[in-house]
Amino acid sequence: MPKLFVIAGHGAGDPGACGNGYTEAERVRALAKRIKELGGGNVILGDLSRDYYRDNGVSTLNLPGEYEIVELHMDAGVPTARGGHVIIYSGYQADDYDKALADMLADILPGRSQMIVDRGNLANPERAAMRGYGYRLVEFGFITNAEDVKVFNSRMDDIASEVLAAFGIKTGNKTGGENMGCILSVEGTKTQYYFDGQSVHPFTNGKEKTVIKKVCNGITDSIKLTKDELNDLKNVLKRS
Ligand SMILES: [Zn+2]
Q1: Dist. CA 194–CA 207, nearest whole Å
Q2: What is the pLDDT of residues 123-134, one digit of tens each?
Q3: Is 145 a residue whose pLDDT tops 90?
Q4: Is 200 helix (H, G, I), strand (E, B) or coil?
Q5: Ligand 1: centre distance to CA 14 (Å)
Q6: Residue 48 vs residues 2, 28, 66: alpha-carbon distances, Å
Q7: What is the mean pLDDT of residues 134-158?
Q8: Theoretical Cys-Cys bridge with 109: which of 38, 141, 175, 219, CB 3.0 to 4.6 Å?
Q9: Residue 57 burial by CB count (10 A; 0-12/13-18/19+): exposed, middle or buried?
Q10: How many alpha carbons fall within 13 Å on the CB side of residue 160?
């Protein structure tokens, strides 16, 4: 299963397309945050204050090989035009992730006759290809179409979950009430701990931390405690 790097299109002063009272930059940031909230540790959220197109951010990314990139956009057109689609770099074959995203869009935001298109004249697909990253730019419907905007807003959680599912990433609890614990670090010490909600377990090496992060979907990393707080926590847990 890959991990996901999410880029929200436009931003840094560029609103992108506008329609139905919304800007593209704002809407795709709302979706990007939801993908991160539901995907937890399997998702890196790109810097939302940046415009990765204008500042050429894709060319300077330094992602581990396990990461796939998805860049979020919404289309603009005549008011009747609707539907989402997936854009990949010209000459590339759609992979299973692209196909799963296209299937999701055909289901939730239908309207396009071609669900996956290749384009050679867009900067970021080309930059990602040059860097060897798995990348796709996804248009989540038309911001200029009232029905698409309504679906985008009302089904944002479904869309976010399905984006994650396309990459095989299970979503955390949607209400955020339950999670798989957290990783604690303690002021003045190098030891980190895994707290599973019932017990505190020290890690003896970095590999252990890595595997816990791998198996615990949505785990919260690096909550910092003082030594006193760690002792308080341990004391609470001793009581039955
Ligand atoms: Zn756009």
Answers
A1: 13
A2: 999 999 999 999
A3: yes
A4: strand
A5: 10
A6: 22, 10, 22
A7: 97
A8: 141
A9: middle
A10: 27
For the chain, the maximum distance between any two Cα atoms, rounded to a whole number of angstroms, is 65
The tens digit of pLDDT for each residue in 184-202 reads: 999 888 889 998 877 899 9
- Which tokens belong to 38? 């539901």
For residue 104, is pLDDT > 90?
Answer: yes
Please enumerate in sequence order all residues whose Cβ is within 8 A of that of 54, keeping only pairs 6 or more positions apart, or say none. 12, 14
Give Cβ neighbours of residue 122 (< 8 Å, ≥ 6 apart): 87, 137
Asked whether residue 177 carries a pLDDT value surpassing 80, the answer given is no
Rounded to the nearest angstrom, the distance between the alpha carbon of 168 and the centre of ligand 1 is 25
Mean pLDDT of 141-146: 98
Rounded-to-integer distance, Cα 73 and Cα 86, Å? 10
Ligand 1 centre distance from Cα of residue 73 (Å): 4
Burial of 200 from C-beta contacts in 10 A (0-12 / 13-18 / 19+): middle
Q: Cα(200) to centroid of ligand 1, in Å?
A: 45
- C-alpha 40 – ligand 1 centre gap (Å): 25
- Count other Cβ atoms within 10 Å, centred on residue 131: 15
Contacts of 207 (CB under 8 A, 6+ apart): none
Mean of all residue pLDDT scores within the chain: 92
Mean pLDDT is lowest, of 20-29, 80-89, 208-217, for 208-217
pTM as predicted = 0.73
